[in-house]
Amino acid sequence: MSATSNLGLDAARAVNPSGHAISGAIPRCAVRPTSREEVAEALRAAARDDLKVVPWGGGVSLHMVAAPPRYDVALDMTALQAIVEYDPDDLTLTAECGVTLDTLRAALAARGQELPLEGARADIATLGGVLAANTSGARRLRFGAPVDRILGARFALGDGTIARTGGRVVKNVAGYAIHRLLCGSRGGLGIILEASLKLMPRPETRRLLIYGLSSAEVADAARWAGFPRMEPAALTIVGRELARTLHVATPTPHDFTAIVGLEDDAPWVEQQTRTTERALGEPELRIDGDEAFEMWQALADLEEHPPPRVSLTTADRTPSALAPLLGTPHAETLVFHAIAGRLHVHLDPAAAPAFEAMATAGGFAVIDRRGVPVPEPSSFGSAIRDVRARIHASLDPGERFALGG
Prior knowledge:
The chain has 405 residues and is α+β, with helices and mostly antiparallel strands. The chain contains 15 helices and 19 strands. It has three domains: 74 residues, Uridine Diphospho-n-acetylenolpyruvylglucosamine Reductase, domain 2; 119 residues, 2-Layer Sandwich (Uridine Diphospho-n-acetylenolpyruvylglucosamine Reductase, domain 3), CATH 3.30.465.10; 166 residues, Vanillyl-alcohol Oxidase, Chain A, domain 3 (3-Layer(aba) Sandwich). The strands form four sheets. Strands 15-12-14-13-17-18-16-19 form an eight-stranded antiparallel beta sheet, with helices on both faces. A five-stranded antiparallel beta sheet has the order 5-6-10-8-9. Strands 1-2-4-3 form a four-stranded mixed beta sheet. The chain is globular, with a radius of gyration of 22 Å. The model has no long low-confidence stretch (mean pLDDT 90).
């Protein structure tokens, strides 16, 4: 096997590149290093041969991003799976990038703790992938996104240099927060090798209150006015078509399913329950305990539910923000984490431009597209693009990472 096929690593590290396609583009080769030293060696070889690299985790959503102009090497990070350090008393954990969310959850559950990050397909979604995508679910506002929970990271630059910023515990975090820049970079600035994160104790009480609602009830601003101040763990609206996959069907069909999530000590959850029922009435379903936790994963899975999707954000953190979109076909296939201001809509790519124009006029802004053509850049946001370009030039001057820029 040639050096290009395995980037100077043992031939056993080579894997089938067809499993690492991005929007149909297959890399020239794919390798799975088993240590950070092998990652560095692979990157040095790629730099020597001027190859463009994309780091891979579980590949939950990466296959649907826009294919880069050049894509030579898939660097599969799933063999780096160790939990490096876990300090339950300090509520911190350091783990390698290839460990899955399910593995982390199992390790933390034994000590009554959690890492409150949600990503689709937790059985294959890796810590590095969740961080690189800055993925979070229905509880984003309450517990934070990856960028809010990361304390430090060890990462590899495009020339194979291994660097580290931040620390492993809260009191030791210092210096430039490069690890935060890596969150959301999609592997375009550097490859996260291991990360240190803040944990949280498992809440004493979990409860879901589930309602079936009409379009008029969703659009009724007065109904929802008190929820941002109440600060529930989550308030999510799901369109009728997607709600069928949640297996929490209400007794009668409705346009939308509303899921109010409450997590805290028992007296506070009881108080929030009464407040919710005063605003919305008696729920059609009530779920407590572990089954309530499973809903967070089910909602995260909906975000990657086919077909392609557009993700948007809004400053209006109530379900009534959806009013401009109600009555359209897109309402059937939406997931709106209202308290977090995050909307995901599954739609035909051909319908995306008209939908985006309608949503933008209604107060939403597009933040991500999966399997949907990206429009030509406009002058709006040019300052942000300039900042991103300068950051990229500083961290990846050799333009080694194919998804950078």
